[in-house]
């Protein structure tokens, strides 16, 4: 299945000054919802391991697992551009391994683009995947798979308040330029901060999208759907600044359901898939 939103269309958004909307999703139903909401990029994140499966770090997710998750998301999206993360391993093992992994994600899951975490350290792999005809979404900055370089712990969101130091701006601009020259179609600059973020976005012709630490100085934003809607158990006790508190809504709904069952009342539900 191909998306109506294409890589060239997203690249043209930067030239037109239109902000790019990206959302990280791990399941079919959320994929359908965000696609109907009109986002531009649906990204299948390896953050699924920590955030959905309760794994302790982002390194345990396998390629086979990513393919299953990507298949579910792909089935839910008919319009947006679908990207999928490499798990830790295929990129680090070299260009041939990266190409094999990218081909699997395209053939078996039907994704439109692959996202490579730590791509600046593997420019030859970026070029190899691009030459195989598969668009590359290159991630750099403080990322889940490169957090240790900055003295941060393993996490799906290493240091949501930790931004790359401003004094690293020049080096990061050069990284971005090298990634573009290597064939990257888009850049995902994680925890950029305003100084480095604005400099990088202005230094390359391809779109620069940011997650945590990003802002209006970038060409667009990427956020986990669960983070945007407040879907985490921790939100029950410490409500975050989000667009909703789905954790509280879910808790209240399940509590009401349990009360109806225990009281012998008819229960609600039965939605179609």
Automatic annotation (TrEMBL):
<dbReference type="GO" id="GO:0000287">
    <property type="term" value="F:magnesium ion binding"/>
</dbReference>
<dbReference type="GO" id="GO:0032259">
    <property type="term" value="P:methylation"/>
</dbReference>
<keyword id="KW-0489">Methyltransferase</keyword>
<dbReference type="InterPro" id="IPR015813">
    <property type="entry name" value="Pyrv/PenolPyrv_kinase-like_dom"/>
</dbReference>
<keyword id="KW-0566">Pantothenate biosynthesis</keyword>
<dbReference type="InterPro" id="IPR040442">
    <property type="entry name" value="Pyrv_kinase-like_dom_sf"/>
</dbReference>
<dbReference type="InterPro" id="IPR003700">
    <property type="entry name" value="Pantoate_hydroxy_MeTrfase"/>
</dbReference>
<dbReference type="GO" id="GO:0015940">
    <property type="term" value="P:pantothenate biosynthetic process"/>
</dbReference>
<comment type="similarity">
    <text>Belongs to the PanB family.</text>
</comment>
<protein>
    <recommendedName>
        <fullName>3-methyl-2-oxobutanoate hydroxymethyltransferase</fullName>
        <ecNumber>2.1.2.11</ecNumber>
    </recommendedName>
</protein>
<keyword id="KW-0808">Transferase</keyword>
<comment type="subunit">
    <text>Homodecamer; pentamer of dimers.</text>
</comment>
<dbReference type="GO" id="GO:0003864">
    <property type="term" value="F:3-methyl-2-oxobutanoate hydroxymethyltransferase activity"/>
</dbReference>
<dbReference type="GO" id="GO:0008168">
    <property type="term" value="F:methyltransferase activity"/>
</dbReference>
<dbReference type="Pfam" id="PF02548">
    <property type="entry name" value="Pantoate_transf"/>
</dbReference>
